[in-house]
Amino acid sequence: MAYEEIINGLNLKDTELRLGLPGTEEEEQQQLQEVSCVRSNKRQFHETTDEHNLKEESSPPAKTQIVGWPPVRSNRKNNNKNVSYMKVSMDGAPYLRKIDLKMYKNYSELLKALENMFKFTIGEYSEREGYKGSGFVPTYEDKDGDWMLVGDVPWDMFSSSCQKLRIMKRSEAPPAS
Amino acid sequence: MGASSTLLMVSHGHCLLCFSCLVTLIAHFESHLKPFLFFLSISLSLSFRRLSVSVLMGLRLPSKVLEHIISFIDANEDRNSVSLVCKSWFETERRTRRKVFVGNCYAVTPAAVARRFPKMRSLTLKGKPHFADYNLVPDGWGGYAWPWIEAMAAKTPSLEEVRLKRMVVTDECLEKIAASFKDFKVLVLTSCEGFSTDGLAAIAATCRNLRELELRECIVEDLGGDWLSYFPETLTSLVSLDFSCLDSEVKLSDLERLVSRSPNLKSLKLNRAVALDGLESLLRRAPQLVELGTGSFSDDLDQEALSKLAKAFAALKQLKCLSGLWDVLPEYIPLLYSVCPRLTSLNLSYATVQMPDLVDLLSRCSKLQKLWVMDLIEDKGLKAVASCCKELRELRVFPSGADLDETDVALTEQGLVSVSEGCPKLESVLYFCVQFTNTALVTIARNRPNFRCFRLCVMEPFAPDYRTQKPLDEGFKAIVERCKDLQRLSVSGLLTDKAFEYIGKHAKKLGMLSVAFAGDSDLMLHHLLSGCESLKKLEIRDCPFGDAALLENAAKLETMRSLWMSSCFVSFDACKILSQKMPRLNVEVIDEHPPETRPESSPVERIYIYRTVAGPRLDMPEFVWTIHKTPEIGVSNLAIKHCCGRFTFHTLYLISILFPLRC
Hints:
By secondary structure, chain A is of the alpha+beta class. Helix content of chain A is 29%, strand content 18%. Chain A has six helices and seven strands, in the order ααααββαββββαβ. In chain A, the strands form two sheets. A five-stranded mixed β-sheet of chain A has the order 2-1-7-5-6, with helices on one face. A two-stranded antiparallel sheet of chain A has the order 3-4. In chain A, strand 3 (124-126) and strand 4 (130-132) form a beta hairpin. Chain A is elongated. Chain B is an alpha/beta fold. Chain B is built from 23 helices and 25 strands. In chain B, the strands form three sheets. Chain B has a 21-stranded mixed β-sheet, covered by helices on one side. In chain B, helix 7 (171-180) runs parallel beside helix 8 (197-206) and helix 9 (252-260) runs parallel beside helix 10. The longest helix of chain B is centred in the middle third of the chain and has 12 residues, at 303-314. The A-B interface holds A 28, 31-32, 35, 38-39, 41-43, 45-46, 63-77, 79-80, 82-83, 85, 87, 94-100, 102-103, 117 and B 131, 133-136, 191, 217, 219, 245, 326-327, 329-330, 349-350, 352, 354-355, 376, 378, 398-404, 406-410, 432, 457, 459-462, 514, 516-517, 541-542, 544, 567-569, 603.
């Protein structure tokens, strides 16, 4: 779906079916701003440019990055560059989890891991009807901020564009296109 | 000359030295030496690293005997105490000291150290302040190893061991070491930078009796893996090799041959570029390894290769420490099961191991004493650690996403509470967490009063107790009240001046304290400087205190190794005043802009203050300002009130190090 969008160059964002609660993005932005303005009588933090922001214009505004905080040595941070930790949330589960997408070679490995992690079954995937046979639908947010169904695009494209994963309750997900 | 009939009594700890040994020693001496009665008891409290000496002497103690006795004393702190007793003890001690430790390379000149300890065999030096690890010290600040290497090459050429931390080491330095110290054995560089693999080649090629070459988290200009091939075929003395921080691939066949001809090799830490097949081949040649750092752990292996690797691991009967494990795939974790029951140290902080693979691994490590892991372990994993790893002494939990991020609650304060409950020997903790509660801290303190090192990093600056929204003052109060032996502490989260009042009041053994984004006023610093008797290193960032507390407690600074302050409200004026009143402190203002161009009371960016007998340093870059650079700058009237020029005991201590006491 997103693949076609790029090729045609049309911006179908406004009319696109999005898998996500309305207003989700804005909420997150507000939270971030609250975080950085707690003590206004304090000295301002040193700010560095947020690398991610230079690349993606459509993502939320820069989180204030403080020099040398958290106090982690740069070689640790550098090591983590090769690892892409993805947040995974599941509707109804108390905790967010993190996974490293690079550990999986295809969708079935990933889905199996998710099933193990959250103790649920994902159901059968079909291109036409999405996931059948379970109360949950795995979705992900891609580089453009769109929420997509996991499995619709080739694995390599998915693993390079996936930012976040969310396992939605079937009742919340709009019907598959 | 010689100890007089002085009675020195400083009692501490318990008596370890065997008295009969002394009696035998005395009996050994010829009877032409005046027979004398003396009662000599030395109680060495090795575990507390303090030498207590009670001496009741009838007549002088022959220097040979004294030398012999002092040779039993190893720890530097003890030797420092010995050297303060009187002139002859100072002389005897300095002529026999082999291991020299200098905690701040600018506190004393290389020439002075070389002159004082002619028999030096081992030199340990520390350079940049700790916050340099987090990019708070600009490049080019200092910490150069060259002057030290040059001085030792000239004065103490029998130097065998050099250990440097946070220093700038050039290829020239390494070449000088290789060329000057004929019996060079040990080079350990921790968090150093400034050299390339060419320098390593020089060490490898020239040091014929090299035993240890360890590069721990250094920033090295990597010109390729050839350096390893410079170890000559005649080198068979290697005991420890750590090149884990290098990027380039070394020639496997050369590494294999090196390992094969090193029967004493106990510690091998590979870099990420060494693949699993290489690992297998190396392990086969070194089944005696005690410490292993693997390379990348993620290649595709067929069944045969897997079983070979499993066999190689199973053959490591002496293995105690395991690290590396970059990119380890979950299906390879069972390969490690055979070594788990013997492991005492496991560093998974670069390994992307997640739950439940982590639990499978850790539940087999019943002897584990040291565990470094990422927050992927989650509370659940730490609970498993608490029930399986009863010998645990040190735990470090690092954040997997190193940027300030949204709340990720899989690792919470509960994890640390579980470990504090389940692991009775736990004494050292470094814990990164998004938020915390006072209750958790109080529980942890109650469970584990034996903490020596407690470093909590609540990653959200100013984060209060997330349940009560109160500051974390009460939580840290519990920590310092209960943990009477606390030597190192890092605080975080929302903290008022009260927290520091508690720290000043209770943390009497605290040697090092790190503070960030905390406190309300000058009181905070005042509490710390006036309360913490044992404080040696204090590092503070982004705290709202100014000149008053600093100037009021100026004398305290000479009793400490160093004080770092950045993004606080200290003015250049205060720095000038402090520097003028305390000539034995170097007060360095590290600022992009010349401080004089700032308005008088405007705060400077960073200050680094340290005691020194070496005077102002001669290698300051342009962004470091001291009054020695611009001596004609005057002092405002306001400052005269804050003068603290009285000599303290500690100043005398410093002088006595250089100039022998007269009895």
